[in-house]
Structure formats: structure tokens, C-alpha cells
Amino acid sequence: MISAKRIVLFGVGASAIVASDIFHKLIRVNKNTLFSADLHAQLAYSANLSADDLAIAVTARGNTADINRMLKAAKQEGCITVALTRFGQDEATRLANYTLPYFYDEQHSQLG
User: Fold this and answer.
1) Beta strands in 1-112 (DSSP E)
2) I need a labelling partner for 89 at 20 to 30 A (CA). Which of 33, 62, 64, 71 fits?
């Protein structure tokens, strides 16, 4: 991450809130970082990455089709990819070069 020319974050739904928080922390330390909550902007970012960039996908379950499509596009461009996802075997974990797992145990009763 230190040597990346640009860091691009992906996240939809509640994961976009986490991606936005990471974005704000990275720009405070002067990292060239892109994030948009707009899905179409994220898809455009993923298609314009290079081997000099770093893509970080935030996905709680790791099975969001659009996020996984962005990970695939980033890897096709030679970009290093990271999945910030719950611990386990999911599609995002298989697609990313690196995984940063976290504990996630949302219960449907918590949704109100």
C-alpha cells in the first residue's frame, strides 16, 4: 500500500460506509485514494486500474456480484487486490491477492 500509485476502494450498501471511512483515513495521510458510493463510478474505476494501483474491496459476505466483478476487472489489469471480508471461504477471498478477514455475525433479529 505504501508504494501504490493509487488506492481504489470498492463497497456497496453497508460496506460502502466502511469503504468511505477507510477513504477518509487514507486521504488524511496524503494517499492518492479514490472512492465513490456510486456503483457505476466504482465499475469505471475498476476498469481503469493498472499494476501500479491497489484495489481494496469491502464486502461482508464476499458474494456481492458487482464487487466480485470489480475484483476480477482489477486483477485483469494487473492490479494488486485486497478483500476486506469476514473470515471464511467466499468468492472475494478466492479472487483477491490478499484477504484481511474480520469477524462478522449479523443476526437477522438485529435488523429490526
Assistant:
1) 6-10, 33-34, 53-59, 80-86, 98-102
2) 33
